[in-house]
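Fold it.
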Amino acid sequence: LSRIGAGQDDVITHIIVDPRDSKRLYASTWSFYSGDGGVFRSDDSGRSWRLVGLGKETVRALAQAPTNPKLLVAGSLTGVYRSTDDGTTWERITPANHDDLRNFDSVAFDPRDANIIYAGTYHLPWKTIDGGKNWSPVVKGMIDDSDVMSIVVDPSNPSNVHATACSGIYRSVDAGQNWKRYGGIPFVFRRTQLIKQDPQHPDTLYAGTTSGLWKTTNEGGEWKRTTPGDWVVNAILINPKNPQRVILGTEREGVQISENGGASFVASNNGFHHQ
């Protein structure tokens, strides 16, 4: 379809489709060795891209505010940055040269208040309730030195927050003030890349790990692996109109599609040069 960046080593970490105009896309990127990276925008469904901010930054996280789509936040190795004008200009909203507010791997907005932002680092998660003026660590109950790879805030209940980390899956029922790690997934499989909530059934969660896809239908009370254990799951999409349709992006098995809520998958890789 297209290329992002001028080098051959660019890694695309997130793609956001603007809810106001599906031809407008945002992408966050970093590079292995060329020093490129940043936030890119496309206005023609991904056929062409232009750098709109954070050039040369290692941008590993990107989110758009549900209450104000003009508002974006990006997490990079140097801090959290915000744009209030569709990505045209960016400002840092974390202090510079802070010992802990760096190396960001995930960002998430509260679905009802764009001033409330969660941000996960290579170490532990942080939170602001005033648009970045002040940040507080939200770490109680989480194993120290947890790389927080993704944060999901329940759109119907913003106090219900999930986070995935190298130490497992965590849930908070009080907006991050306290965390409890889920059991049920064997310790050896604990490195969880991301978690997704069924849009129609909040008690159903899918966890993408380095050892397959895991699913619970009772809010983490019991987990079951639904794929081979050697699958590395990097992306999960759930059809909001038909949650039985689940699409995975994997490390070497390419794209895998399920029509039965993850019970079985069929490969869908026609057109890919590699998987």
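DSSP finds no helices and 24 strands in the chain.
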